[in-house]
Amino acid sequence: MKQPGFTLIELVVVLSLVGLLSIVSLRPLHGWLSQVNLTAAAHLIAAELQALRSEAAAGHETKVFEPAALALPKGIRLSGSQQLSFSATGFPPPGGSGTLIAENSYGKQKKVILSSSGRVRIE
Predict the structure, then answer these.
(1) CB of 13 within 8 A of CB of 20?
(2) Do residues 90 and 116 touch, judged by C-beta distance below 8 A?
(3) Long-range Cβ contacts of 95-101 (<8 Å, 24+ apart)
């Protein structure tokens, strides 16, 4: 009399296929996650710059952006202008504007640009 169910060989084959498919699908997922982290870092930097601009205007004092104080997502490097600042009027002083470049481990980049008018944008 034959009992209902799966044989050991059937289970091993199915589990092997599931494992192989999961390994193949994780590589593109890592690239997507790296891109999401890059976008999140760019938006974090832009938000910090906008908050700093508000603080400078509200407190009538010069504020300097400190990129080292940011908690960037894992795998994100920051380069570019490191002396971004806002004067007491809320606008960058001469030499206070510039571009910060966030780069992920795949070499993709997002630029956070602070214009001389104080506008912050992401490219």
Answers:
(1) no
(2) no
(3) 100/45, 100/67
* Contact assessment for residue 75 and residue 31, using Cβ atoms and an 8 Å cutoff: no
Please give the domain boundaries of the chain with CATH numbers for all domains. 9-122 (3.55.40.10)
Enclosing H/E stretch for 119:
none
How long is the chain? 123
Q: What is the Cα–Cα distance from 34 to 76, expressed in whole angstroms?
A: 9
Instruction: Quote the tokens at residue 48.
Output: 């910090």
Alpha helices, DSSP H, located in the chain: 8-59
Q: pLDDT 10s per residue in the chain (123 long)? A: 677 888 899 999 999 999 998 888 877 778 888 999 999 999 999 999 999 999 999 999 999 999 888 888 888 999 987 689 999 998 999 988 999 999 998 999 999 999 999 999 999
The answer for residues whose C-beta is within 8 angstroms of residue 37's C-beta and 6 or more apart is: 73, 74, 75, 76, 104
